[in-house]
């Protein structure tokens, strides 16, 4: 990649696609690269949180209101020509697609203009948008799972998913000491399906012994609809907690938690492993291609946590799993080290090198 080359990044509007894309943006800004960043209107909260990046002089930012409806031809034609116009004017040399339906029109326009396309796949199973453009890409970078021997070629790369600078800075401070009297537990429902967490997890926690309840502090990311209900259960059981629909300081909360109860989207798992956190994973059962279950299975295979499928999730089963994490400090420490070993401090630097 030339010193003054312009790079375009496009990512679908969910955290799993956008967070790694923003992490790459951070690094490219540090390297004084000129960047075009495209996502869709669903990312307003994430963009607001990272507005300092999008106000940089060399960052061109645009949100695309692209319909999910395949038959919304007017919307797709309008956006396609809008993207073509931007690409012709801005002239990026490299286009990096982070997946999601938002990227389809953008990559199609890039192909038409003979731009160099690089794909980034965060999950263990390749998504539909990336699969569609795989034959037309110069390179594809996988961020989760083992390197597949039969895919060792000049086009395929395996580099851990990039994580935010906050996470990388906290990674340097990670310690595996578990002497704390208070046990911090972070519960992250993700952007989809948090309602199941709001229903079952507080009830599971109330089944724990009084001795354990006195020691725990819960950080629970709830849905807005259920926040009062969730708080009420914790208050009734005299469990210290902070409940919120969105944690601005999520990296810090994850860092000081002994373990995490979470969905298994790639972005969340990458941050969990970067900070060496053992995890109880409950994959979102409606995730496309069942990718969340496959993501979780790989972390469990590596020794970084336990998995409970949503169809098998009961209050009793989750309570027993939490007890295993809380009572067996030796096992928890072992899982923390194995989780930490998956993370890679240099993933962003490696990723930028591959873009050249």
What does this protein look like?
The chain folds into 2 domains: 6-158, Rossmann fold, CATH 3.40.50.2000; 169-342, Rossmann fold. With 356 residues, the protein is of the alpha/beta class. The mean pLDDT is 91. It has helices at 15-30, 44-49, 51-54, 73-90, 102-112, 128-133, 165-171, 194-206, 210-213, 227-236, 250-256, 266-274, 291-301, 315-327, 329-342, 347-354, and strands at residues 6-10, 34-40, 59-64, 94-97, 116-121, 139-142, 156-158, 183-188, 216-221, 240-244, 259-262, 279-281, 305-307. The strands form 2 sheets. The chain has a 7-stranded parallel beta sheet with strand order 3-2-1-4-5-6-7, sandwiched between helices. A 6-stranded parallel beta sheet has the order 10-9-8-11-12-13, sandwiched between helices. The protein is built from 16 helices and 13 strands. Helix 6 links the parallel strand 5 (116-121) and strand 6 (139-142).
Helix-strand blueprint:
Blueprint: E1 6-10, H1 15-30, E2 34-40, H2 44-49, H3 51-54, E3 59-64, H4 73-90, E4 94-97, H5 102-112, E5 116-121, H6 128-133, E6 139-142, E7 156-158, H7 165-171, E8 183-188, H8 194-206, H9 210-213, E9 216-221, H10 227-236, E10 240-244, H11 250-256, E11 259-262, H12 266-274, E12 279-281, H13 291-301, E13 305-307, H14 315-327, H15 329-342, H16 347-354
Parallel strand pairs: 1-2, 1-4, 2-3, 4-5, 5-6, 6-7, 8-9, 8-11, 9-10, 11-12, 12-13
Helix pairs in contact: 1-16, 4-5, 8-10, 8-14, 12-15
